[in-house]
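Running this now, will post back.
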Amino acid sequence: MENTCNNSLISVDDENGFSSDSSDADEQIEFEELEFPGEDQRSETEETEGPYSEEPLANEEWLEEYNRERRMIEERQEELEDRLGRVVEVGTSCKCGNCHVDFLQNSKECQCCHEIDGCLESLSSELVQREVDNAPNCIISHPGFDPVCLNRWSLQSAAAKYKAQDGSRYRQTGTETDFLRATAYRQFTQLVHGYLGARRIPLPACAYHVIRKEFGAEGVNFTGYEDDDD
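Update: finished.
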């Protein structure tokens, strides 16, 4: 009776595949021999393809042009730094005759109006030519500069159309002088370049000097121009 029970148990275990060593080995071999089509190819593809895999590779001509532009940018930055630090005389780079570094805060503000395309275009525009006999040599001699950028009543009125970077209405939060000076910067940009939206462009040194001299006070620390990503 005892042998019969044991044989019965062994038979049940064999049917479920739990007690046969040879059965486990066969299953293991069969599992290892299974193939998954495309798995190797997919892993190879993942290694060779990436988010920029379809971008063209840089050739020698492209790299040469890229390096040339980088050198030009670096040389230009060094030149502006030398102007700010008075390493070179202002007169060597100023063509308008009104550039000063006294109130400038960083090298981005050290450009002459003759080095900014928008200023030259504005000075030679048909609108300006109708106002004056000869085209002005400096942007601060533009017939619209004084009434648009220096007149207090004009600036107070113009401020209402501007918005801060967070979208709120432009309003006075500090002194009136600071408020008028900031508004004058924006008025100058619109006068010379037109509507730029959120884009910003530094003013020329001559314009910074006149505006900060008009709307400044002794001991005032001016906020220098900064790009949006600074």
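The two ends are 92 Å apart (CA to CA). More later if anyone needs it.
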